[in-house]
Amino acid sequence: MAPQSSKFLQNYGFDLVLGSIAAFYVFMAPYTKVEESFNVQAMHDILYHQHHLENYDHLEFPGVVPRTFIGALIVSILASPVILAMNLLHLPKIYSLFAVRLVLGCIILLTLRFFRIQVRNKFGHQVEAFFVILTALQFHLLFYCTRPLPNILSLGLVNLAYGYSLKGSFYAALKCLIFATIVFRCDMLLLLGPLGLQLLLTKSISLWESLKCGISTALLCIGLTTLVDTIMWKKLVWPEFEVLWFNSVLNRSSEWGTHSFHWYFTSALPRALLAAYPLCMLGVFLDRRILSYILPVFLFVLLYSKLPHKELRFIISSVPIFNLSAAIAANRIYNNRKKSLWKLLYFCLLGLLLISLGCTIITFMASYNNYPSGYGLKYLHQIGHSTNNTDEQWVHIDPFSAMNGISRFCENASPWRYSKEEGILIEEFRWRNFTFLINEHSNIEGFKCLFAVNGFSKIHLQSGFPPISLVEEPKVFILGNIKSEYVITRNWPGCS
Questions:
Q1: Burial code of 162-175, b = ≥16 C-beta within 10 A, e = fewer?
Q2: DSSP label of 491
Q3: Which residues contact 223 (CB under 8 A, 6 or more apart)?
Q4: pTM tops 0.85, yes or no
Q5: Cα–Cα distance between 453 and 476 in angstroms, integer?
């Protein structure tokens, strides 16, 4: 039994470590934000409305640009047996949100495992171990790997592409990146271009074969996404082409904010990589083999920097390769730790790892408090629950709350009813039949503020211990209709 257990840990120990951390993030912060809204609602509708497309959320709230249903379909199909069991046990729908996020996390971590195995084969077991340590001590990759963003769906294919590149299967790597570009994220073209050019210049692939491979894969992917999404959107559509047109041709992504050219290198990557950021630069000098892998990824981030609208999630697919370079540096430092000059670097390495752990804990605590409306609806269900009441309880969710934690998975069964109707003026609510409002405003005529939910505001530096504290402030208010006997007769915490 002992040898079998040891062999199991040897084969899957790293997966258990990374999977446990990712699952911890799911259970501690299950709610989702506006960036994840389309895929979350799509998964809910596929699982609960199935072929009844007229009930799907995206037809009422289509968003700025259409997105593909392919990722949501894959995750929903894999999660459906678990969801069926949950429905038979009459569990609340929120447990289904845990299920789909865990399934997505398993998919992404399996692709990361494939990449990691190729790292082991090319660079050795110790480099693989340091790769896992650095990844585990970072927050963003494992936190985001369970979040149904188009960036994360494409990350799975990018991980495969990285693995195939290390393996020497360059055409397979190109196919993965083409699929990711055409179906999930058109901006992966910024990674596909530099990688393809490098492979051509190094004669790893031939121009003619790469053209045949690229064109056939592209046509297949366009046909697949157009077929699936035309059915789901009820109109002829290739989602990522519309995204490309919106972001690049019309250049309207800047309407959501802009950052300076250097922001990815001076803010996003340092926060995402932490200890791996200085180490990845050192890794290039210590092992020249990594240069051919890291150069296309560096160019990807550099090219992306020209777009004014920037978010960390846009370049999250660069993290695995930067972590590999950092792991190579950490491994070299560890192996030479007994030598005089390297000893200092070894202590610096230990310090960087401790700093990474501290930063990850702080970032997690901030993220835990970053979904106030999700917690608000949860508390409303708990406090407002009554087994004797059969009257419909209408809950209106304003746009701010819909963007900060609430999805269809958060809804309860009858007598609860929900509305996300937009465009209602504050003074109009008193004439509507809503029992509760989940709103960013605390004072609305005709309604009483029942309780408030705090959310993360900022990090505060202070003297003493701990040197850092998180500042929270009321973000979401739950209000009750003063004409409702159900509201007036119950005890509520209040907003003071």
A1: bbbbbbebbbbbbb
A2: -
A3: none
A4: yes
A5: 5
Q: CB–CB of 372/455 below 8 Å?
A: yes
What are 395's strand-pairing partners?
418, 436
Beta strands in 376-435 (DSSP E): 393-397, 416-419
Helix (H), strand (E) at residue 449: strand 447-461
Q: Round to whole Å and give the CA distance between 408 and 43.
A: 10
Residue 397 corresponds to which tokens in the numbers above?
Answer: 């969710």
Query: Is the pLDDT assigned to residue 387 strictly greater than 60?
Result: no
Helix pair angle (340-368, 276-286), 10° resolution: 140
Q: Does the N-terminal peptide bond of residue 466 adopt cis geometry, omega within 30 degrees of 0?
A: yes
Strands 416-419 and 393-397: parallel
Dihedrals φ, ψ of 382, to 5°? Answer: -70, -50
Per-residue model confidence as pLDDT tens digits over 281-330: 999 999 888 999 999 999 999 999 988 888 899 999 999 999 999 999 99
CB 434, CB 395: distance < 8 Å: yes
CA proximity to 401, closest of 410, 389, 392, 391: 410
Q: Is the dihedral of CA 372, 375, 381, 382 positive or negative?
A: negative
The Cα angle at residue 186 between residues 250 and 212, in degrees rounded to 5: 125
Contacts of 482 (CB under 8 A, 6+ apart): 446, 447, 448, 488
